[in-house]
Amino acid sequence: MLRFRTSGAPDIMVYAAKLLFINHLRNIASPSSSSANLRPPAASSSTRSMSTSFDPSLHHLFQQKHSLRSKVRTALKNMDPILTSQQDDAIQRVVLDAPWFKKSSSICAYISCDALREVDTSRIVSNILSNNETEDQGHVQMKKRLYLPRVEDKNSNMKMLKVSSYDDLVLSSMNILEPTLVDCSGNPREDVMQATDPVDLFIVPGLAFDKFGGRLGRSGGYYDMFLKNYQELIKKKNWKQPLLVALSYSVQIIENERIPTTPYDVPVDALVSASGFMPISSVAFKYCH
């Protein structure tokens, strides 16, 4: 079981960066901000002043996150490759067999990256891209729309763009497959933030998770920023909340403790591990009946 203990001198530069990120999320999530305008404003003098102030509670929280990230990265690095492959297969099988997946017609997912040691999604993505509406053991498998992430910059801005085949993907500078901005005809790809229909299911990665919905990312803030904006959109459109599911290896799940979070960290509704579907929120529990 991983515990949150830190040691060593405070890293003021990391702390300052995190404060700027929180201020950025606060601006994005405020009712007066536009969900379409994802680029953060230039740092003002007041923001720069804030970044050099010292808040012991926030500093301790970010030190806890940093410590936990290091421990989980080490645990992932030390996973036996055979066990990793077995868990990849089991996790994807749980997703593909789940009624909540089969009934979803619009899905935001991710292309797994071996270098980041993310849970493999190749079978899930292939299933969606080759999908036609079918019926399997009483569950209708809906024809699906798939949106995949494209990182816009280093300021936590990310888009989810619609793809219809692997030919729609290119390698990014970080060696991760991402959608191209335009399709083969030169037309801009559909951005999920401009879609006419809501997303039913989000399948998200992460570095660590707890059994209370807490999710620890890799410190970039891309998913938290995007999900905050999408939450604002569905409120505006009066759409149903999508199911937010995280895929996790066993070593990424924190037992009996909560991951340290800020109000700007978006919790997940459920986890899928090799052990099966783990509902957390009331939304997820509805899928168990």
From TrEMBL:
Keywords: ATP-binding, Magnesium, Metal-binding, Nucleotide-binding. Its cofactor is Mg(2+). It catalyses: (6S)-5-formyl-5,6,7,8-tetrahydrofolate + ATP = (6R)-5,10-methenyltetrahydrofolate + ADP + phosphate. Residues 31-51 are annotated as: Disordered. It is an enzyme of class 6 (ligase). It comes from the Eukaryota. Residues 39-51 have a biased composition (Low complexity). Its EC number is 6.3.3.2. Pfam families: 5-FTHF_cyc-lig (PF01812). Belongs to the 5-formyltetrahydrofolate cyclo-ligase family. This is 5-formyltetrahydrofolate cyclo-ligase.
